[in-house]
Design brief:
The chain is an alpha+beta fold and about 250 residues long. It has two domains: about 100 residues, no CATH class; about 100 residues, no CATH class. Strand 2 and strand 3 form a beta hairpin.
């Protein structure tokens, strides 16, 4: 991570410099200038937008979500609480954990809470313990197959000390893209296009560094090779069901 601790004010000043503003802010929280007001307006949405771009290692975590309802609809068997700090859900952890295949990936959908009259339980519940926020709907059995139900997601990490410098640079360009049309004069479209291009280059660099700092598990073999060696999950001697339905390997 960065060897020099950065602050929100530092990031705002980087963004302002990208827009050609030479006078830095003293404190983004207390300065009363137009520049400070604009930075305060856009700093949160800038951070959240940049974090949603990619499963950054410094902003990814795994938790066991709270189960809210069994059989909430005819389509889904379980509903879990969508975490308050979640910016982008990456996946439910399947029994293959981080080395999923197309068949082992856990299906899910994010929606508003379901009304009790859609429940397929008998008798229907009179109410749910949680009806605010979003719900995560899935048919993943989790504890019913002696495995915990775990989700992996990008959270709104506001701890700048954990951000690598390449991400900080990228975020400063993203913030500048919200400021440039107000704080500059002349060919505004040209300036905006240039800032956007610089952001794309910076965020791509940050993504590359993030990938290079991880050792990802080996990708699974194709379903056809796994069928040759065993079942759809690659276990020798077990029945394999080809996809799409009705397709057979001779």
């Amino acid at each position: 991570m960065s060897s020099v601790e950065q602050t929100t004010t530092d990031i705002a000043n980087l963004a302002l410099s990208h827009c050609g503003v030479s006078k830095p802010l003293v404190n983004i929280s207390t300065d009363k200038s137009l520049e400070a007001q604009l930075c305060r307006t856009f700093i949160d949405i800038t951070r959240q937008t940049a974090l949603r771009e990619f499963p950054w290692m410094f902003a990814t975590k795994q938790v066991a979500p709270s189960l809210i309802a069994n059989q909430p609809t005819s389509e889904w068997l379980y509903a879990y609480q969508y975490p308050d700090d979640c910016l982008r859900l990456i996946k439910f952890m399947s029994w293959r954990l981080s080395n999923d295949t197309r068949q082992s990936r856990v299906e899910y959908k994010i929606m508003q809470p379901a009304p009790v009259n859609l429940s397929t339980l008998s008798p229907k519940p009179t109410s749910y313990s949680q009806t605010s926020g979003l719900w995560l709907y899935t048919n993943w059995p989790g504890v019913n197959v002696s495995m915990p139900t775990v989700i992996e997601y990008i959270f709104d990490n506001k701890n700048i000390a954990q951000w690598p410098p390449d991400f900080i640079i990228a975020m400063s360009y993203k913030l500048a893209s919200f400021l440039v049309m107000t704080l500059t004069s002349g060919d505004l479209q040209k300036y905006a296009t240039d800032i956007d291009a610089r952001y794309k280059a910076a965020i791509d660099t940050a993504k590359a560094f993030n990938l290079n700092e991880e050792q990802r598990p080996e990708e699974p073999q194709s379903e056809f090779i796994r069928a040759r060696d065993g079942d759809m999950f690659g276990y020798t001697g077990m029945t394999w069901i080809a996809e799409p339905a009705g397709f057979q390997v001779q």
